[in-house]
């Protein structure tokens, strides 16, 4: 038993350690966000609600079947539910019925409602697609910010290692009298400054990771970390397209335009639905009903035999004239018929048509049509505005991506030049031809050039992905 407990504890510790060491890839972050992000969930609920609305609209095309039943106790002058006669009674009455109805014509309103519901679901799906695109870009941006912060820290640490080597060597040369103590102090100051920047860089990584974790709705900030991949630049050929080609492609592919177009179609459909109220409505129905009562029933029973009654005489002969009639019926109180028997005996069917013709309704239909037309114009303006906004956003994204690419290339050239200058300064400092201040300045410029390469690289990657989304590249196909 003790061995088993020890094994279980070691297994649990190993599992916890493995969980704490898990590092998230960009793809995992995006997939997790799309599954757990609240805004995405709300958009998914909008799609589900639109699907329910569509089923409601389809249901209005089908017959409606409703059943009813009632059971009541009556005292005093009430109507006998089986005979229809008013009588003083204390009794129980039961009735039941089933009615089926269907709308045969309503100005095609129900059919147009189905079409509108389909458009609404499509608009909700477009909104979900846009939300997923926005979340993906937000996650990618936060992820790249963490990568930049991590690589920035690596540059600072690498440069500080060089500084520590120079500090040790300079200290030896100062002790030997080959260099003045001022050079040692200068490098010590440089080392202190680099240590401070390393601490700031470490804090930036922590802040960037917390920001990404919050976006993902992950609460375990302490153990959250990402895979430190060096992402390459893919798909630069998109910049070979003109900005106008990208704008036209975006108008065909982007959800912003699709949403505005769907809303315009919905508004136009609402006009058709409103106009349908001008037309008559024709419906059909059929009803089956039956009834039963607990009241005693009265039946009139004719007793056997006849009664002879003298009605006159013959004047010439004096002979009596008589008539013979059946004895009058005697009312007899009987107990109610059985429940099932009454239901079969008292049932009935009614059926027919219902026609409703709108004549005057206080201008409500006309005003609704006008209101729907106003909404169409509003949707047209929103579509026009969406196209203008998209053009501006695509143009800005194109300029940003182009500028970021140029900045990245310039940063590479500058870094190469600063590297050569730093190597030259290192050689001169090693033979005492330059002082520690000039050497430190050369080292700082080289360090800044390296950091600028990293910054411009990730800035270009992100802005390139924004442009690719506008060009219609699906989120799943974005390469990092």
From TrEMBL:
Transmembrane segments: none annotated. Its main location: membrane. Keywords: Cell outer membrane, Coiled coil, Membrane, Signal, Transmembrane, Transmembrane beta strand, Transport. InterPro entries: OMP_efflux, TolC-like. It is found in: Cell outer membrane. The keyword Coiled coil applies. Residues 1-19 form the signal peptide. One of its GO terms (cellular component) is cell outer membrane. It holds the Pfam family OEP. Residues 250-277 form a coiled coil. One of its GO terms (molecular function) is efflux transmembrane transporter activity. Belongs to the outer membrane factor (OMF) (TC 1.B.17) family. This is TolC family protein.
């Amino acid at each position: 038993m003790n061995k088993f407990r020890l094994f279980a504890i070691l297994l649990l510790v190993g599992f916890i350690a493995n969980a704490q060491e898990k590092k998230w890839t960009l793809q995992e972050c995006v997939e997790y966000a799309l599954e757990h992000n609240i805004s995405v969930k709300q958009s998914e609920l909008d799609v589900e609600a639109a699907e329910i609305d569509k089923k409601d609209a389809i249901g209005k095309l089908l017959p409606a079947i409703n059943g009813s039943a009632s059971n009541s106790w009556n005292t005093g002058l009430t109507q006998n539910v089986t005979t229809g006669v008013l009588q003083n009674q204390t009794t129980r009455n039961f009735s039941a019925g089933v009615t089926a109805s269907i709308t045969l014509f309503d100005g095609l309103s129900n059919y147009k409602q189905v079409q509108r519901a389909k458009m609404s679901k499509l608009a909700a799906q477009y909104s979900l697609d846009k939300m997923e695109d926005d979340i993906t870009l937000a996650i990618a941006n936060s992820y790249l910010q963490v990568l930049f912060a991590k690589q920035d820290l690596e540059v600072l640490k690498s440069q500080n290692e060089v500084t520590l080597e120079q500090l040790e060597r300079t200290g030896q040369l100062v002790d030997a009298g080959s260099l003045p103590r001022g050079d040692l102090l200068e490098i010590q100051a440089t080392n202190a400054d680099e240590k401070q920047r390393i601490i700031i860089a470490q804090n930036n990584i922590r802040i960037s990771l917390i920001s990404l974790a919050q976006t993902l709705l992950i609460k375990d900030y302490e153990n959250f970390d990402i895979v430190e991949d060096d992402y390459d630049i893919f798909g630069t050929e998109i910049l070979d397209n003109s900005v106008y080609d990208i704008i036209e492609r975006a108008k065909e592919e982007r959800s912003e335009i699709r949403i505005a177009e769907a809303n315009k179609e919905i508004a136009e459909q609402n006009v058709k639905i409103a106009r349908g109220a001008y037309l008559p409505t024709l419906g059909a129905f059929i009803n089956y009903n039956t009834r039963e009562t607990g009241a005693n029933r009265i039946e009139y029973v004719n007793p056997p035999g006849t009664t002879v009654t003298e009605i006159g005489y013959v004047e010439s002969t004096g002979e009596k004239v008589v008539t013979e009639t059946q004895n009058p019926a005697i009312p007899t109180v009987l107990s109610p018929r059985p429940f099932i028997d009454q239901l079969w005996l008292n049932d009935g069917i009614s059926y027919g048509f219902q026609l409703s013709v709108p004549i005057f309704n206080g201008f409500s239909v006309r005003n609704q049509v006008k209101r729907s037309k106003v909404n169409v114009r509003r949707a047209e303006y929103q579509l026009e505005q969406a196209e203008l906004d998209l053009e501006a956003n695509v143009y800005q994204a194109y300029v940003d991506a182009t500028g970021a690419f140029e900045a990245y290339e310039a940063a590479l050239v500058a870094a190469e030049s600063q590297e050569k200058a730093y190597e030259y300064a290192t050689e001169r400092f090693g033979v005492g031809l330059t002082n520690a201040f000039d050497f430190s300045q050369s080292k700082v410029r080289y360090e800044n050039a390296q950091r600028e390469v990293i910054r411009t690289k990730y800035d270009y990657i992100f802005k390139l992905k924004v442009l690719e989304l506008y060009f219609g590249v699906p989120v799943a196909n974005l390469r990092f």
